[in-house]
Amino acid sequence: MKTPQHDWKPMESSTAGARCRNCGTHVTQQFARVFGDNGDVVHGCPGCTTYREMQSGGHLPRE
């Protein structure tokens, strides 16, 4: 008896809602947790901002 294999990929988003607010590019939920704001909203992704800005928080809107 074979057990069913699931194609679970932890780096992929389980929902279609994770998108960059700046350019609309799809991002994973994990990316949103790491580089998003406190609500996991992504304001800049690798497609529209630099990693240096993302690491320093320079891509987040000023309040």
From TrEMBL:
Key words of the record: Plasmid
InterPro entries: DUF7563
Protein name per the record: Small CPxCG-related zinc finger protein
Source organism per UniProt: Natronorubrum daqingense
